[in-house]
Amino acid sequence: MVNLIADGKKITAAKGTMLLEALRASGIDIPTLCAHEAVTKSGACRLCVVEVKKGKRAKIVTSCLYPVEDGIIVETKNERVMNVRRLVMQLLMARCPESDVIRDLAAKIGVNPEPRFTPDTDKSKCILCRSCVRVCEEIVGVSAIGFSCRGSERTIGTPFNEDSAVCIGCGACVYVCPTNHITMETTHDKRKIWGRTFKMKTCDVCGRYFAPEDQLKFISKKTGVPMKELSVCTDCR
Ligand code: SF4
Ligand code: FES
After folding, report:
1. What is the CA(32)–ligand 2 centre distance, in A?
2. Within this chain, do residues 96 and 165 fall inside the same structural domain, yes or no?
3. Quick check: CB of 181 below 6 Å from ligand 1?
4. Could you say which residues of the chain have pLDDT below 70?
């Protein structure tokens, strides 16, 4: 176990735990956008910054990627931390001026809603955190989406923005996206995502549409579980 002090409070955490996790477990609130428990951390949003003091040195670190260390003193809300966090927030607001999630978080942190930097005009809500790419790659295992272009032109999507042949319409990317950038429409027997329309399957017991057929076929192929067994919704199992 590792002992540290955060905001004047003694904290004990298992070795290898990330600082963000240890701080939250002890009741300290840290704002985040990109840290989703389902995928490996990217350190993309930088909102989780805190100050770590080791001996005489004090540095700003991204707590979601910083493993706990014995004897460190952590400040999560001092002036230095808050200045960095506000700056990060203002940059995120400029990148995604249309994002309600970012605007609400900014208000919670006490950031002035007036833009400090010139807002982007592409109306994107994407903070390029890669969580959607990672969940598709690491959890679902199909790699249907990725980044294209470089620098400020960087966007998320299917290769060449064409209909993805490998997407199974599961919606895992929507679930992990922190800013609601990805749109998915499910209406009865159809689901639309990434430009494709998926046919939904009805539950063999209750008759309710519950999952895209392509998703069930993919699971069946991957796991060897017959389609018949997968054709029952979670409520009826
Ligand atoms: S679409 Fe969402 S999850 Fe994917 S990179 Fe952008 S913000 Fe992150
Ligand atoms: S939560 Fe740590 S960088 Fe986004």
Report:
1. 5
2. no
3. yes
4. 123
